[in-house]
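Cont'd.
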Amino acid sequence: MLGRVQVPPKVKRGETFEVRVLIQHPMETGFRRDINGAVIPAHVVDRLVCRIAGREVFSAELGTGVAANPYIAFFARAEQGGPVEVEWSDDRGQKGRAVTTLDVG
Amino acid sequence: MRRRRFLAASGVALASQALPVAAQRFQPAQDVGPLLEKLAGGKRPEPGGMKLEVPQIAENGNSVPLRIAVESPMTATSYVSAIHVVAERNPRPMVATFRLGPHSGRAEISTRIRLAGTQKLRVLAAMSDGHFRLGEVEVLVTSAACLDESL
Amino acid sequence: MSARLAAALALGALGAAAQGPQPPQGGSHFQSADLRALQADDFANPGMLWAARGEALWSQKRGEGPACSSCHGEASKSMRGVAASYPKHSPALGKVLNLEQRINACVTANQKGPALAWESDELLGLTTYVARQSNGMPVEVSIDGPAAGAYERGRTLYFERQGQLNLACNQCHDANWGKTLLAEKISQGHPVDWPAYRMEWQKLGSLQRRLRACYFGVRAALPDFGSPELVALELYLAARARGLSASVPGVRR
């Protein structure tokens, strides 16, 4: 699954910065019908975790009320630089991952 | 007579076929009290203590921008641990839960949500001291001008 | 001097032929502040997910033949300005092609792969990625010579009343642009930021899908994807949008 994560190019130690995540996913509600009238089964990303330098800083439980191609932005305090990893999974067990690097200086 | 009976019967059939769509469109607000009570572990949340940014008039219920900022120093001893979003007229009112901690620095979340029609949106914030806060905002959801069942 | 004069005369004639609303404004102009900001945000614009997919596909093989990048190298150089000249007549195929059709012609003839389906993430991805390479450049299509027939057909279609509502394109997009239809502003119908992400669709879609949605809106029969009618209409709209800059992917209500 395609997804992206973004942090500012450089942050100071102790500074609070925004982490932005965008995931390609239909977030099907299970309440829609296709052109032939058949119910389109529910299919949603239901879990998302963000770790910075190995430490979990944020997680989310999502449902059908989150818009298609979910966008989620949150904050974190810069303690140490390293990989910013976002991992998510959907209700069919499919997993996705996006990584960027946090430069603390 | 026979023809009239046929028309009446087909009219009923059409009406009952149309029902699920209509029911979906005009789904009444559900009582989300029990859901909020469960999320707050039976505690009574204090009103306010947060800023909710959402358009008063949402142009498309498929994607409504929402920003939640809960007032908190976000220190090791005083922080927001979770933010729950509840939409009373969505077929599944539990929209999302975001889990934060002192390392979040700021208790602020931006996302885009679905709203199945005009309704009151509720945000419940769990504080590290065991208290809860509840924010509420009315959102009017409009429809597109042109029908589009293309593709 | 005479060449310049001829060019100026040709431009004047063209201007008269494809005179649209003044001043011309792209579709995003008629969107809410929220959607305009989302379109301008290269990270949060959900259409960028398709652009990213297209970028990855650019260097992937689809058959026995080469990947796009094997012949065309870096898209930022080789594809700069290309999409701004589409739809365009293909001498090899003897007809006017839109960008999706041009990409698919390469996929089947050179890459020796199966044609990418209309509105598939693959075709939308590659189209968006290639189209983005013209961002900031004015749309400039050729409407004479072998493209003249398609242009005329597109122009005729634009002014032809269609469907149960008996409406022509120009009745909304020339005569009533900027006015409010329910809670929506009517655009001038300039297609400079397509493919676009449409909230109504909850995904990215092609200009042809958007045109089909208009056909549906006036309760007319929907032309097939890739049909000569839709390509002709795309060509007329592109000519009518001349001078506006490309800005792909757009974001729509």
